[in-house]
Predict the structure.
Amino acid sequence: MVFALLRYGLGRRHTPFRVLPPTPATLKPSYDVVVIGGGGHGLATAYYLAKDHGITNVAVLERGWLAGGNTARNTAIIRSNYLTPEGVAFYDESVRLYRRLSNDLGINTMVSERGHLTLAHTDAAMRTMRWRAEVNKSLKVDSEVVGPDEIARLCPELDLSRDKRYPILGALYHAPGSIARHDAVAWGYAMGASQRGVEIHQGTEVQSLEIENGRITGVVTNRGRIACGRVVQAVAGRSSEVARMAGLTLPIRTVPLQACVSEPVKPVLDPIIVSGSLHVYISQSARGEFVMGGATDPYALYSSRSTFEFKEVLMADMLELFPFLGHARVLRQWAGMADMTPDFSPVMGLTPVQNYFIDSGWGTWGFKATPVCGLTMAQTIATGTPHPLIEGFRLDRFSRFAQLGERGAASVGH
């Protein structure tokens, strides 16, 4: 093995494998579908358009670098223990897709099933956990309420003492809860899409949209104009700004969401731990880093910056759960932009503009939906009819007073 690696590394005849072809020098005059946003959702949509529907004359437009937005600024948690039937069914399909994603894409996405514990510190929180567990079970999702003894078995590192500000009374345990490698997911979809003929254009900013008689006809970029048949926007925190180019006003408020990681340590924490009362969550990555985050910032802002205040408040609450973290040093800190809807559910599917589709309102839960979002949006774009799994996420639900009320399962930011 050692000699084979040396021969491979030092050999002159080896041509390195290129994951993606270089960005085309020019844009085509027209495309069947233009995807605005080169993050996980946009790339997944392009991949399934080509793979499942044979639509390959597709351009993915990314103003920065590939998957450099919220895809690179999340904590990579996967779960389906939501509260509404629409949310549970949607995210459970995503969990199933994630389980086979490495084989489908031919890249190791490092999906690791850990189990997910949502802690309850009050009687009211315990009632909500029982409610969520019953909804989950009715839809055949593995979810149950557990007490302190079972929590201690699942996560012996937690401080379960009673003489605390927020003693742990129980938890909602979701065994399929997982983490994955976010950049591998995005690059896997990009690789699969490009191999099927999809063009991925980095450094290409959409400047305006052309609409004639209520129908999208063209996209103007910093590299020229494109005529198009259909357009889908998947731009996360920039959703309201891009939708405004199409004459749409979205019920979205954009706020920063911060997170951080510690220095790597020996693996000690297997499950993902969440506390809605303390507004914190934590998991340990395959590299040994503790990945930590909390609630969104309380004010609207289009900026991905970090603050000392977040870190100070987060660490105070985190130490109540895991006192041993007092010895760990923070390695790095970052922030993304969360596009929050009033009912804590996404906005997906058709819009009042003909052939203009939207994928937005992901708030703090966009990464876990990446596969199912791409799958359902691709079918919706190809057929012009909303996929059954996203019927409840229609934009017009707000004017019809048909909100979904997912806040009780959104927890604190993941």
Q: What stands out?
A: The longest strand covers residues 330-340. The mean pLDDT is 93. Residues 264 and 289 are 4 Å apart (CA to CA).
